[in-house]
Amino acid sequence: MDNRPVASIDFKMGKIRILLYTFLAIAAGGALSLLLLNQFYKSAPKSPSAHSLQSVHKKNLIETKVHLYFADKEKPFLIAEERNLLHAEDAISFARMIVTALSEGPRQELMRTLPPETVLRALFIDQHKTAYVDFNESLKENHPGGSQAEILTIYAIVNSLVLNIPEIETVKILLDGRESMTLCGHMDLRFPMKANLLLVR
């Protein structure tokens, strides 16, 4: 009797079983991998959301009452406008916030002292307590001109920094990264300036 057909069928069935076992093993392995991956993502620390980052950032800020100096609408004097500013603890960050708030203009019935296009380019404080404040050329190009307006602009900046920040005693104004002789032709900007309380009412 010839058993070759039976042997052939058994051989084919064996191959099918091997393929089936291999498929089941791969499927089981894949399922296990997915399970482990899912557990990993559940146990992994979550990245902080934007809200939580803002909360952490705000916790690192302090609130300080400051006086920003703007021009009187009727008389050639500066008037202090009281604000509460959030800022980092270091003096440079505090100074940047003050200059930024000053360039945004007053909230009360006062006149702005910096042109609206004015941008603070850089600011640093040296070991002699002099703040170097670098503005873009708009401070000069868009200034209305006149000796009184120039004086009010310069001392709005100087007074707002010196009278609010103990680490600053004098201020030197730069334009576009360079020293400038004057802003509008009336005041000498080559040297650092102290606060001028005679202009404040």
Q: Spans with pLDDT under 50 lasting ≥5 residues? A: 29-56
Global shape: globular
Q: What value does the Rg take, in angstroms?
A: 35 Å
What string, H for helix and E for strand, traces the elements in order?
Answer: HHEEHEEHHEE
What do these coordinates show?
With 201 residues, the protein is an alpha+beta fold. The protein has two domains: 1-44; 55-199, no CATH class. Helices cover 42% and strands 20% of the residues. It has five helices and six strands; from the N terminus they run H-H-E-E-H-E-E-H-H-E-E. It has helices at residues 4-43, 50-59, 91-104, 138-141, 147-162; strands spanning 62-71, 78-87, 120-125, 130-135, 170-175, 178-179. Helix 3 packs antiparallel against helix 5 (147-162). It is globular and about 95 Å long. The termini are far apart. Mean pLDDT is 80; it is low at 29-56.
Q: Which SSEs are present, and which pair or pack?
A:
Layout: H1 4-43, H2 50-59, E1 62-71, E2 78-87, H3 91-104, E3 120-125, E4 130-135, H4 138-141, H5 147-162, E5 170-175, E6 178-179
Parallel strand pairs: 4-5
Antiparallel strand pairs: 1-2, 3-4, 5-6
Helix pairs in contact: 3-5
Quick structural overview:
This protein has 201 residues and is α+β, with helices and mostly antiparallel strands. The chain has helices at residues 4-43, 50-59, 91-104, 138-141, 147-162, and strands at residues 62-71, 78-87, 120-125, 130-135, 170-175, 178-179.
